[in-house]
């Protein structure tokens, strides 16, 4: 099954092992040790990075993935290069091959930095096809099914019900939190998981505040649905989000930090949200969001949006964060 095969390939990559994609062999640099590096020393190694990561390294624009030659570099040089702090000046080549595109996509699926080291040979790499990697998200979203459901007592809602959805691969579980009673055209919010905001109450974003205020709004209006999607940090994963937070301490904003790491500003997809609504028999919604693009995205996926309901929670700590959302991501915060 292709979904399971890709999950296994991502597992191998996350555990420092080699993966072969249609003949191209990769390993992720995050897990390199001196011993592994010495064993690879006889090979002509290249570091594969996204155009945005290459821009951060070489301070120039790129339009395709970039292969950086690692000849004569030490492991420490490579570690610094991956982190964007190297003084080395290696040779590089833009190379937009299907294998490179899928290698970077697999790193994203594994929630690693979007980069990889290309090897010349391997004796025991896990083999996977580029086609399976490229269709992974679509296959995963299309295989969602209702796995569990139960009533749930919430502090801010008189009546709530939770439904858990899971793809056949067993990963990326998503929740539908149903507040009150659902109409034919209910209030609906797509809320991407935010460990720091939702659970810890971080003041750096508006996520946790929006989640709680949305529950209150839906309870007051009689009902609604919150689709809680497991896609942390705009889809880059928790560890990478924390790395982006650290970069923001040096003066970068949210978008700049994500792009410095090699990610696009927006790595999320909302296909799973649309599929969950369809499974629940909902074809029309009033979307609770400050982001008009999210409303358009969900309409493009076959769900009619009759109204956009704003939900702004601002304070002195997240003011700059909201301004960046407005200026660079199109959010309406007035």
Give the helix/strand class. Answer: alpha/beta
CATH class group of the largest domain: Alpha Beta
Number of strands: 14
How far is the first residue's CA from the last residue's CA? 48 Å
Order of SSEs: HEEHEHEHEHEEHHEEEEHHEHHHHEHEH
Helix content: 25-40%
Offer a few descriptive terms.
2 domains; globular; Rossmann fold; single chain; 39% helix; 7-stranded mixed β-sheet; alpha/beta
Task: Please give a structural write-up.
With 334 residues, the chain is an alpha/beta fold. The protein folds into 2 domains: 2-134, DHBP synthase; 137-231 and 268-329, Rossmann fold (3-Layer(aba) Sandwich). The protein is 39% helix and 21% strand. It contains 15 helices and 14 strands. It has helices at residues 2-14, 34-39, 51-58, 75-83, 98-109, 130-134, 136-142, 195-199, 207-221, 232-235, 238-248, 254-260, 271-279, 292-300, 319-329; strands at residues 19-21, 24-27, 46-49, 66-69, 92-94, 115-119, 126-128, 145-151, 160-166, 174-180, 187-192, 223-229, 284-288, 304-309. The strands form 2 sheets. It has a 7-stranded mixed beta sheet. A 7-stranded mixed beta sheet has the order 8-9-10-12-11-13-14, sandwiched between helices. A hairpin with a 7-residue loop joins strand 9 (160-166) and strand 10. The longest helix has 15 residues, at 207-221. It is globular, with a radius of gyration of 21 Å. The chain starts with a helix and ends in a 5-residue tail after the last helix. The model has no long low-confidence stretch (mean pLDDT 88).
């Amino acid at each position: 099954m292709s979904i399971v095969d890709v999950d296994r390939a991502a597992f191998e990559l996350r555990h420092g092992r080699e993966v072969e994609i249609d003949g191209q062999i990769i390993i992720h640099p995050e897990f390199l040790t001196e011993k592994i590096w010495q064993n690879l020393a006889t090979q002509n190694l290249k570091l594969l990075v996204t155009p945005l990561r290459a821009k951060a390294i070489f301070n120039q624009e790129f339009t395709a993935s970039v292969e950086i030659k690692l000849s004569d570099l030490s492991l420490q040089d490579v570690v610094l290069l991956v982190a964007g702090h190297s003084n080395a000046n290696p040779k590089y080549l833009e190379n937009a091959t299907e294998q490179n595109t899928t290698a970077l996509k697999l790193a994203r699926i594994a929630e690693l930095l979007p980069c990889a080291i290309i090897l010349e040979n391997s004796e025991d790499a896990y083999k996977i096809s580029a086609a399976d990697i490229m269709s992974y998200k679509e296959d995963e979203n299309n295989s969602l099914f209702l796995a569990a459901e139960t009533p749930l007592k919430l502090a801010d809602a008189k009546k709530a019900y939770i439904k858990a959805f899971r793809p056949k691969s067993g990963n990326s579980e998503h929740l539908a939190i149903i507040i009150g009673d659902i109409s034919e055209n209910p209030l609906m919010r797509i809320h991407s998981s935010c460990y720091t905001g939702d659970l810890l109450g971080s003041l750096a974003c508006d996520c946790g505040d929006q989640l709680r205020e949305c529950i209150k709004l839906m309870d007051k209006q009689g009902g609604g649905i919150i689709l809680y999607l497991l896609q942390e940090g705009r889809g880059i994963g928790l560890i990478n989000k924390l790395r982006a937070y650290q970069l923001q301490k040096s003066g970068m904003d949210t978008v700049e930090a994500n792009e410095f790491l090699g990610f696009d500003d927006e790595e999320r997809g909302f296909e799973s949200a649309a599929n969950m609504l369809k499974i629940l028999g909902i074809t029309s919604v009033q979307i609770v969001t400050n982001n008009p693009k999210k409303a358009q995205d969900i309409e493009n996926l076959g769900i009619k949006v009759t109204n956009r309901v704003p939900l702004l929670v601002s304070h002195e700590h997240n003011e700059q964060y909201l301004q960046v959302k407005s200026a660079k991501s199109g959010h309406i915060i007035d």
